Fold this protein.
Amino acid sequence: MGKIHPIILTIVFSVTAHKLVFASAQTAPELQQLVTQLHDPATSDEASTQLKALAGSNADARRHLANELPGLISKSSQDPSQYKVWINSVQLAGELKIEQTIPVLVSLFDPVRYSRTAVSTITSRARLDDDPIAKALVRVGQPAIGPVSGILEGKDRVQHTRLRAALVLYNMNSPEADAALVHDLQTETDPRVRSYIEERLKGHPKTTVH
Amino acid sequence: MLGYNDSQIVASVTVPSGTPDEDVSVSVTSNGYNGNGFVSGGGAVSPTGPGVQASVRSGSRPTVNISIRWSGGKSPDNSKLFGSDLDSCSESLGQHTCPNGWFWNIEGKGIVSDDAANWTVAQTATSRAKGYYTVSPGVVQSFDDLTTNTPDGPESDFLQKPSGQTTIYWIDGPGPRKTYGASGPIYEMTSVENFTTTFCTLVPTGNCFSIKWYLKAVVRNGGILDNTSIGLGAASTDF
């Protein structure tokens, strides 16, 4: 009996390895097709849904998107007819927390590009529901803290842009992001930005504002 | 025993405070008499009689009186700030034309019969916005957006319900933005947002009270707010 176990293990391993190779081979064309569909406004929504599911469990798909999305976000942002491609790409970047998209998201942060929703409420604005770029940066989280802090501390930027950056950091809801807000307060000269940060941080009682 | 007399026993059943609403069965069990255990008068008779069904219901559920104000100043004891909203441009109630939108600041208030901390507050929004936005000079594009029962907070930054007090406040500032999508200014539009704000007790569950209110805005002439109205109830989205 003692010799049977290694044999069974070998067979199981062989079958598993075969399945992995097969799955990878099967995924590659499917992945390429989905990415192609993501580029087309007519098929972008469905492709985005499938890519999100695929990349959540497939490292190859994730790597592929990490290469693809920065260029796609940048390119589609320049053409209003590519709105669906743009918003799906931005949402994928955030939902999959793809760090490689941080530079393009930061470059497109200002001026604000709202999603196609006319009405809003105080809650939808606080959640950044209609601000896809800012929302994506919130979702990417920790790796985006430095670049978003750079926007907040860019004293030459318009006040609304700096307030949005502060809200992105606040919505990350992490000690590191709150620390970036507290750091800005040390040199903040705009009374509106200062009071905004101080008031928002009251919602994070563990963060101390000196 | 050589004989017996029937005696009526009247027993009261006391329900401890805090008992949830429930349906129960109440029965009587004989422990016997005069130090002797229960003795059946004949045959196999159980010392426990048949159960009777009874319902336990709270006699005084907590209640709330909900109201909304949409003009004037905020209540002095309401510490929530419209300034916590990055697009708000005023701390006073009422309609405000802000740089990024036409927002109407409101203050909601609930006076509860017990303790504010015992309540949850949740809001849903159903909306329609229909109109045109400017794509490029002289070129407009139509839009018609509907949302249904979207969860709409209120988040803690805009909700005050301190433990030990009976007044709950929430603030909101609904309204349309001035741009549609990435960079298209609203050209003309009719928008309606219908809200339902619901207060519920944590215990008992299901003890809820709602208020419905709406905001309607009409934008004309290339992006000028023509009229706007707010009130209790719901506005038609049939336009």
